[in-house]
Hints:
The chain contains one helix and 15 strands; from the N terminus they run αβββββββββββββββ. 15% of the residues lie in helices and 41% in strands. The chain starts with a helix and ends in a 6-residue tail after the last strand. The protein is an alpha+beta fold. A hairpin with a 3-residue loop joins strand 1 (48-54) and strand 2. It has a four-stranded antiparallel beta sheet with strand order 1-2-3-4, with no helix packed on it. A four-stranded antiparallel beta sheet has the order 5-6-7-8, with no helix packed on it. It has one helix spanning 3-35, and strands at 48-54, 58-64, 73-79, 88-92, 99-104, 108-116, 119-126, 133-136, 139-140, 147-150, 158-163, 169-173, 187-191, 194-200, 206-212. It has two domains: 43-136; 139-218, no CATH class.
Amino acid sequence: xxxxxxxxxxxxxxxxxxxxxxxxxxxxxxxxxxxxxxxxxxxxxxxxxxxxxxxxxxxxxxxxxxxxxxxxxxxxxxxxxxxxxxxxxxxxxxxxxxxxxxxxxxxxxxxxxxxxxxxxxxxxxxxxxxxxxxxxxxxxxxxxxxxxxxxxxxxxxxxxxxxxxxxxxxxxxxxxxxxxxxxxxxxxxxxxxxxxxxxxxxxxxxxxxxxxxxxxxx
Length: 218
């Protein structure tokens, strides 16, 4: 082999080794890059606080669950002593974008949401062992947290007085109520085992009634 051919052979061998090493390094670098890739964080898998309220006895938190396609929320009730242990946790089939905590008392939290048109619904979540109660077109009685009124099956002439403490109900027929009121009272006041109410009637005037409700109080 001539000196020229020897130099050419050594040069080609060196070039092949260099390219092979570069290719190996590139493959190793690509593998390393893939192995340390961090998956993207999915916001739809995290809960978001919609609303909260607190009383002297408990804290209530309403959270959205976006992964459930906008129709499920989580409600958590725990003792108001900074304890991380949940006393009660429920999943509710309610719209995320139209739900909130309307108010809280010492015994329950009220989750409210619109259900189309004038319709609205409220779910009463109790801090004790009572099961949740859902009522439509609901109004609270001004001075008694245990008493609310509601409408069932959109029969707006029949106002239902509901005792949250024992679940008992009394139906009051109001045939003259203005249909645009959707069964809602302008005034609801509890006094001496009776419920005083006022509402707009179909003639444009105000109807006033005092209804004894002693049968549902105990």
